[in-house]
Automatic annotation (TrEMBL):
Phylogenetic classification of the source organism: Bacteria, Bacillati, Actinomycetota, Actinomycetes, Kitasatosporales
UniProt feature coiled coil, ranges: none
All copies of domain FAD-binding, residue ranges: 16-349
Molecular function GO labels: FAD binding
A Pfam family reported for this protein in Swiss-Prot or TrEMBL: FAD_binding_3
Provenance organism: Streptomyces inusitatus
Protein name: FAD-binding domain-containing protein
SUPFAM superfamilies cross-referenced by the UniProt entry: FAD/NAD(P)-binding domain
Length: 478
């Protein structure tokens, strides 16, 4: 175990700079507490006071899932953060008990025993709670309306960040450690090139995916309503379409429709319910038909899978790390981006606590560790997405097809096997590596197949259906 006294002693006189004040940046700042006595977060926008939209996060209005693997990592960095989320109105959804999901191979069963969980709330609330807790530490300060323009140092060591404030004044912010957590718009590859470091190789898998979301008033009595999801089938040789209902704070449901190239949803309110009804099962459209919309439709097209392989750069500078969406972005339908960011920040904390921020090759060690966290989510996303028609950036190889057949078998077995549901969700919740899916007992379960017959429809209870239909009757009567 790390000696806290040694960590605090090593922190004296050290400054760490984090580029980006979003979720990844705040979790990174949390990871650096006690390792540096001064932590500066550089944020190009002005951060909101409370759970309000942030200018630099256009995808905030869509469904975001924080899986149990990510929650546990966040708790390591910010003890008590889950309690704070729940106190602010978020829900802890038990999995599979609290989920109604149609996979490409059939409906998942809502087994009575919880194996995993997720936090359900708006992205604005989730970010605000983390931001508030991090900034309670006087060592952490956000420098707002300030843009990072480059790194200071050499190809072998980073010593600071060049910044420009809202007044146009440029200055150098010296640092003993720098982390780029600036998200999709990160300029880390360019910054590295300016220091003489090779730019990383990258890959993009683009489905042309479009997200359209709308908020509805939740029906009275729906406080324990499950997450409802209809997934697309990547092997159906047609554009993928899906929809999700996520209960969020304030007695609301956040509903997101999505469609790949050729099957995109529109931003027209009159099309929203019809799109949800047109899916492989109309349950999402049927449920929201009873509800009152609380606003228009929000659209987003920044959804492609993109990865920068920083860990493969031959010569990596000391004291510089890249984390979060600056490393990889994923198809949002899998709900992995926030969990990967939390796990990556926890990896930074683990290595830096053990070795100290000034340790030789610490940055390289952390970047490798970040890559391992990214790889599970990346392989899960792209392993499915390359099969959708119209995908750009990759086509399925023979190995991809072989693995896809096995995954299809696992999913089919999961629809009727508690054991397989748990094993498969261990991976999709980012609590276990992909290799666990080839353990002997998993292989045996996949060979045997589902232990129960397929469900004929969504496993909603009579009470849950009654709550929704009563809301519809109330609206009609009003």
């Amino acid at each position: 175990m790390t000696d806290p006294k040694r960590v605090c002693a090593d922190a004296r006189g050290r400054r760490a700079v984090v580029i980006g004040g979003g979720l990844a940046g705040m979790l990174t700042a949390a990871a650096l507490r006690g390792l540096a006595d001064e932590i500066r977060v550089i944020e190009s926008d002005e951060l909101p006071d409370g759970p309000l939209p942030r200018r630099g996060l256009p995808q905030a209005g869509h469904v975001h899932l924080l899986w149990s693997g990510g929650v546990r990592a966040a708790e390591e960095l910010l003890p008590g953060v889950t309690r704070r989320w729940l106190a602010a109105g978020a829900r802890r959804i038990p999995v599979p008990t609290g989920m109604v999901g149609l996979s490409p191979q059939g409906w998942y069963r809502r087994w009575r025993r919880e194996t995993h969980f997720l936090i359900a709330c708006s992205r604005d609330l989730l970010d605000a709670v983390v931001r508030e807790q991090v900034l309670e530490d006087p060592a952490v300060r956000v420098v707002q309306r300030t843009r990072a323009e480059g790194l200071v140092g050499t190809a072998t060591r980073v010593t600071g960040v060049r910044v420009r404030g809202a007044d146009g004044v440029r200055r150098v912010l010296e640092a003993d450690f720098v982390v780029d957590a600036s998200g999709r718009g990160s300029r880390a590859p360019r910054f590295l090139e300016e220091l003489g470091v090779d730019s990383p190789a990258g890959r993009t898998v683009d489905l042309g995916l479009v997200y359209a979301s709308r908020v509805f008033r939740a029906p009275p009595g729906a406080e324990e309503f499950p997450v409802v999801s209809v997934q697309a089938d990547a092997r159906a040789a047609r554009p993928g379409r899906s929809a999700t209902i996520l209960p969020i704070e304030g007695g609301r449901w956040l509903v997101t429709n999505s469609g790949t190239r050729g099957g995109e949803p529109t931003d027209r309110a009159e099309d929203f319910e019809g799109f949800a009804r047109s899916l492989r099962h109309p349950v999402v459209g049927e449920l929201i038909s009873h509800l009152e919309p609380l606003g228009g439709v929000t659209i987003n097209r920044s959804t492609r899978n993109r990865r920068q392989f920083f860990e493969k750069v031959k010569e990596w500078p000391e004291r510089f790390v890249v984390i979060g969406d600056a490393v990889a972005t994923f198809n949002p339908v899998y709900g992995h981006g926030m969990s990967v960011a939390a796990q990556s920040a926890a990896a930074l904390r683990e290595h830096a606590s053990e070795h100290g921020l000034a340790a030789p090759r610490l940055a390289r060690r952390v970047q490798y560790s970040v890559a391992r966290r990214v790889s599970v989510a990346w392989d899960l996303a792209t392993g499915q997405d390359v099969f959708f028609p119209g995908v750009r950036g990759g086509s399925p190889s023979r190995t991809d097809r072989m693995l896809a057949r096995y995954v299809d078998r696992l999913v089919k077995t999961s629809t009727g096997s508690f054991l397989m549901t748990k094993e498969f969700t261990d991976v999709t919740s980012l609590e276990a590596p992909l290799r666990t899916l080839v353990r002997p007992r998993v292989l045996l379960a996949a060979a045997v197949g589902p232990r129960h017959p397929p469900l004929g429809g969504p496993p909603l209870t009579e009470e849950e259906l009654a709550v929704v239909t009563a809301a519809g009757a109330g609206r009609a009567g009003g």
